[in-house]
Amino acid sequence: MQLIKLDATASTNLYLKNLMLEDNLVDFTIVTAKEQVKGKGQMGASWESEKGKNLTFSILKHQQMLFIKDQFVLNMLVSLAIYRSLECIKIPDLSIKWPNDILSGRNKICGILIENLLLGQKISASIIGIGLNVNQTQFKNLPNASSLKLITGKTFDLDEVLQIIAKNLELLFGELESGHEQLLKKAYLKVLFRKDKASTFKNKASNELFTAIIRTIAADGTLVLELEDQVLKRYDLKEIKLMY
Q1: Around Cβ 197, how many Cβ atoms within 10 Å?
Q2: Which residues of the chain have pLDDT under 70?
Q3: Which of 81, 100, 147, 187 is the 20 to 30 Å CA partner of 71?
Q4: Cα-flanking dihedrals φ and ψ of residue 42, to 5°?
């Protein structure tokens, strides 16, 4: 593992992608920055983080030629690694909100953005961007955001938390490479926020609300909901939003 520490950068994902053009990087190269001025989240959303208070980092993972159609396993694996890392440091009431947000209670504490480099029908490498709210205590216009410090009252060592996450990522990638994809999916579903509970969703096209139950995740990462009369229907992230 190679660790590159930056004071500031536009985006650790972008920095890592540009570095790959210049150098033959080793597996599990990590770029971390005290400040990200143009950090990104899911669906192009910005990621806000107070300088020096949180973990904003990206990891390069060379793949064993994972098929593009199976890419959602990466979301499950990375979110599980974060979940287990936070369990290790006693963060309470954890869950994973589809597809890969990490919650404590109903508050979001971590976001993940995975960008894959493709070769034909397969993934040759992944750049895994992670933003974890650690020691920040104020969030402007983000009512559902929280941090490890707000939840526990403790100040955390950023390097120690990063090392725990890196270790769990390596362990779970080892499981994937050993063919244990179904075990990863089972573990992911076990901690999935609102699974098997009647929940409210918003249809993004119509802005209408509807009630459904999360039953499982399809192989392509779409959410399988049970609607009225036990009808099952699949939705992707562009179509619906799970409301808090």
Answers
A1: 8
A2: 39-47
A3: 147
A4: -65, 145
Fold (CATH) for 2-190: BirA Bifunctional Protein; domain 2 (3.30.930)
How far is residue 47's CA from residue 105's CA, in Å, rounded to a whole number? 20
Q: Using an 8 Å Cβ cutoff, are 225 and 201 in contact?
A: yes
Contact 188, 180 (CB under 8 A): no
Measured CA distances, 185 to 31, 158, 223 (Å): 28, 29, 13
**Which region, left, alpha or beta, applies to residue 95 given φ > 0 means left and ψ of -120 to 50 means alpha?**
beta
The per-residue pLDDT for 42 is: 57
Residue 58 — φ and ψ, nearest 5°?
Answer: -135, 145
* CA–CA gap between residue 110 and residue 139 (Å, rounded): 13
Helix (H, G, I), strand (E, B) or coil at 8: strand
pLDDT tens digits along 80-129? 999 999 999 999 999 999 999 999 999 999 999 999 999 999 999 999 99
Name the token pair of 144. 């559902």
Q: Where are the domains of the chain?
A: 2-190, 198-242
Distance separating alpha carbons of residues 15 and 221, to the nearest angstrom: 27
Q: Name the one residue in this structure whose structure tokens are 């139950």.
A: 213
* CATH number for the domain running over 198-242: 2.30.30
Strand partners, 130: 57, 112
What is the structure's pLDDT at 23?
83
